[in-house]
Design a protein that fits this description.
The protein is built from eight helices and eight strands; from the N terminus they run E-E-H-E-H-H-E-E-H-E-H-H-H-E-E-H. By secondary structure, it is α+β, with helices and mostly antiparallel strands. Strands 3-5-4 form a three-stranded antiparallel sheet.
Amino acid sequence: MVLKYRILQKGSSLDLLQLEEYKDIFQVIEDCRVNGKFINENSSDYKIKEAYSFILQYKQEVQSYFGILGYSLISDKGFFYFIIEGYETIPKPYVNTYIDYIDIYRFLKLLNTNISSTDAGPYSASDIESRLNGDIELKTMVDKMNFLKKRSTNREAIDSIILRLKNDGFAQTIDNREEEFLILRSFKFIEDMIEAIEYEL
């Protein structure tokens, strides 16, 4: 489907399909919408960072366009994401994963209280494994995580947690250093979710 969209800039109308740089950025935004991904300010992917800056500059125009399609653009500190108007309050991939992220969040906070959306890291998988090997409370938390039932070693458990964070858009590998990862701004989505749950309790 050909997407047509126009924005106002300095009194003139620009067609995103006429400018290759805008077309590419808009396609990144569209891909994030379709796949329920976060658009992070501190992403190591320059295309995502460009998309974030673009939305920040043309937020109203982007909201108007996707509103026509039935989507709302949600903005938070350092990231954007889309939800379906009147149907969901969170991105589709995370609807059924609340319980897993409650466990992951509590594990990470016990591991290192500094891990947060405002302290990106970097963090090391080996350092986490060392802590897990010598901490009974951390081991107990890992043993209770349902999505880790098939893991056989502590390192496999750590790798599975980090991979889950990466796949769901809350963490990212630093360049080609698979051993290290950054926490993205979108981790605030998890922090807010946990805060809301604890408030209800």
